[in-house]
Amino acid sequence: xxxxxxxxxxxxxxxxxxxxxxxxxxxxxxxxxxxxxxxxxxxxxxxxxxxxxxxxxxxxxxxxxxxxxxxxxxxxxxxxxxxxxxxxxxxxxxxxxxxxxxxxxxxxxxxxxxxxxxxxxxxxxxxxxxxxxxxxxxxxxxxxxxxxxxxxxxxxxxxxxxxxxxxxxxxxxxxxxxxxxxxxxxxxxxxxxxxxxxxxxxxxxxxxxxxxxxxxxxxxxxxxxxxxxxxxxxxxxxxxxxxxxxxxxxxxxxxxxxxxxxxxxxxxxxxxxxxxxxxxxxxxxxxxxxxxxxxxxxxxxxxxxxxxxxxxxxxxxxxxxxxxxxxxxxxxxxxxxxxxxxxxxxxxxxxxxxxxxxxxxxxxxxxxxxxxxxxxxxxxxxxxxxxxxxxxxxxxxxxxxxxxxxxxxxxxxxxxxxxxxxxxxxxxxxxxxxxxxxxxxxxxxxxxxxxxxxxxxxxxxxxxxxxxxxxxxxxxxxxxxxxxxxxxxxxxxxxxxxxxxxxxxxxxxxxxxxxxxxxxxxxxxxxxxxxxxxxxxxxxxxxxxxxxxxxxxxxxxxxxxxxxxxxxxxxxxxxxxxxxxxxxxxxxxxxxxxxxxxxxxxxxxxxxxxxxxxxxxxxxxxxxxxxxxxxxxxxxx
Amino acid sequence: xxxxxxxxxxxxxxxxxxxxxxxxxxxxxxxxxxxxxxxxxxxxxxxxxxxxxxxxxxxxxxxxxxxxxxxxxxxxxxxxxxxxxxxxxxxxxxxxxxxxxxxxxxxxxxxxxxxxxxxxxxxxxxxxxxxxxxxxxxxxxxxxxxxxxxxxxxxxxxxxxxxxxxxxxxxxxxxxxxxxxxxxxxxxxxxxxxxxxxxxxxxxxxxxxxxxxxxxxxxxxxxxxxxxxxxxxxxxxxxxxxxxx
Lengths: 637, 245
Ligand SMILES: Cc1cc2nc3c(=O)[nH]c(=O)nc-3n(C[C@H](O)[C@H](O)[C@H](O)COP(=O)(O)OP(=O)(O)OC[C@H]3O[C@@H](n4cnc5c(N)ncnc54)[C@H](O)[C@@H]3O)c2cc1C
Ligand code: SF4
Ligand code: FES
Known about the structure:
The complex is a heterodimer.
Chain A (H helix, E strand, L loop, with lengths): L14 H8 L5 H4 L3 E5 L3 H13 L2 E5 L17 E2 L11 H11 L6 H21 L24 E2 L5 H18 L3 E4 L2 E9 L2 E9 L5 E5 L2 E4 L20 H8 L4 E2 L4 E7 L22 E5 L16 E2 L1 H5 L9 H13 L11 E4 L1 H7 L1 H19 L8 E10 L2 E2 L12 E3 L17 H23 L10 H20 L5 H15 L6 H21 L11 H25 L23 H4 L1 E6 L8 E6 L14
Helix pairs in contact in A: 3-6, 3-12, 4-5, 5-12, 10-11, 14-15, 14-16, 15-16
Chain B lengths: L2 E7 L8 E7 L8 H14 L22 E2 L2 E2 L21 E5 L8 E3 L2 E2 L2 H10 L19 H11 L6 H5 L6 H12 L2 H4 L2 H14 L10 H5 L7 H13 L2
Parallel strand pairs in B: 1-5
Antiparallel strand pairs in B: 1-2, 3-4, 3-5, 6-7
Helix pairs in contact in B: 2-7, 3-5, 5-7, 5-9, 7-9
The structure holds flavin-adenine dinucleotide, iron/sulfur cluster and FE2/S2 (inorganic) cluster (FES).
């Protein structure tokens, strides 16, 4: 099927305004007759739930943590982009749009990205009005910095805790609506299934993670804002609970999953220290503004970094990409690190690391400036590694960080299932094959504050299916299915723990579907994944019962989904016979090792439809048209 | 290294809990405290026993989910560090470690080391925000904020809502948590408009939830992983008194 992104007509800079004029409205008195389910309270979910509540809708909001404030958006460090052009360095909406399209290696939908750049300016205004304490200069104005993949300073930040402050802003707006009774908050509640009535999304089935009770909620529309699926790799910078369950189960109910193979590997993470490792920690890429990345020129150079003279160092990013240097986009920097480590020039235990060196910057600006800019990151590094980065270079290595793929949505953020809207990292919409730094926060808030309030009204005005009763068979069937699934997981009583399976899956994904993929590695993954999955269903051990707080059971459900979803990722990666952004197929590269896109054959969004466990998924395509930027080779040299 | 753990085990909120002894073998100094517990849990599961339930998510010291009292100190012995960021290199071979949940009247235990901290959410719900709607706000640079004020606001806003301050306080007071939010917003022009109402509503909610009062022990500041200062409590008191006139 050819998918229609429902891109409005007209010049790109007028599309959103015109579209809004044509969207149907719901009058204020009628809004309170509608109920909207919002799953997830990260930037996307909290901003959506708060705004929809303010507008008068009844909102039921869910998250798996004990408080909405703990969604993983809280961990974002670096900053948020906006085309404010406050520093007067030549920024504009068009430029932010262009950079995002180019950064995404021409695999994102133009119209969405343009809208994102447009509303970026409103986001900063909104957050400041809420009291988000962004960094300021001595005159009291907002301060900006530059971020990976951008040649100008358009990133707003709150020390190294931008995500935290933005999320707290949204969480506080949400809390206000909870107080006013417009939003009902359900923390420690995990979504297990999406419920469709006559083909439209009208509810969900959830598990209360304290009592174990499984129950159903119905609504007029459902918004999934459940974040990314990076944990399919086991080790990633995501929080331990990040999962694909909500989106994958929606996929099994008919929602298309778009570009699942587009994952982002972040170049600046703290290297793995041993088998016990449970997650990886990101060091904000803002560090690349002042840190210089290098490895020894020669293999096996085991001298202490300070003892290696300049002539024996290879500042490989500065050498290969002189105009962007250490700020080259993430996919490029990550791959470059992998290359030097594959050549045997990596540093630290196992040779899986490169240096990020601040000695020049400390010499130029003084330690106190560096401390002021990055103090908390240096502390974090020391806490984890026991090393002082003011005295010796940090060691960093790429790690899985973000997933550009997600449920397919049209311009209205509506999936192919009417009434199912998908926001934030959970959708696929704005970042193409690679996301630029500081633009996920922007997208989450754009979707929640400024897009969904308009587009969901249009759906509510159109739909003929009112909020159903949860006694309807569609709900009862789903409840039954979920109860059985849990019973099955508990009854296996095998020998291997859930983590054990997850770790094994993660290793296969990292080795075969990670930074560099080949037909061979992908086929190998497709061979191995079903075997682990089979073993999982025969040999996993899940202690305890379903009727209580049971963290192993929660994990088991998530890992069961990862074990299926991993296959979809590999299938997508295998079908895309080109390299673009974070998807690097070794067969498709330029003579200099850069990604080689194939615009003739792959300039489309690959959206996969579920056809049962035993059948291959069906590929649907949304062709991408570039009318406002020229398809070009993405060069950062 | 090898350690002996004494861990609080409690089935659910109504059951009687007790400390149980576990051995942790072959612990690497590079492990985080929670990774050490992961190792213990993996073994318990394989032995057919129930793993220790504990809250955690980001494991980066920012979500505020992890919450354990280690040897009597909320978040353990290392200053300004959450449990998830505490590493085993701060312990030595043969150590005996006591691990307990946050203990406070307003935080009922749910299971083992997991407690119910929703009371903190309700304090924020009562008034910890600027009552602004989405849209229709002025340009961000139309509101100038002196850098020192913005910096103080940010110092206060860094609170991660973990509740260690409550667990550390002999009165089970949530003053530090509440003061952090009151200060963050009271430092900014956007927050000043509602300052009086906010401080009254939040304080009232705090008392309703069963949190105790502040009698200047400063244990909260010592336990706080984010370095939130007790001087903010003075600010809270000042705002409260101001609000009475
Ligand atoms: C360490 C780190 C640093 C980052 N730094 C930056 C940065 O500097 N700038 C930037 O722009 N981006 C950054 N990002 C990316 C950005 O933070 C995320 O992409 C973004 O915050 C995602 O927001 P979200 O609202 O889509 O999802 P999340 O914030 O992940 O929220 C997901 C929500 O869904 C809920 N949920 C998930 N599954 C279920 C389920 N099954 N049932 C019920 N609830 C569920 C969770 O409880 C949570 O509330 C960073 C990411 C990481 C990991
Ligand atoms: S003030 Fe400190 S200890 Fe208390 S909740 Fe905030 S971060 Fe935790
Ligand atoms: S797990 Fe998030 S702060 Fe410790």
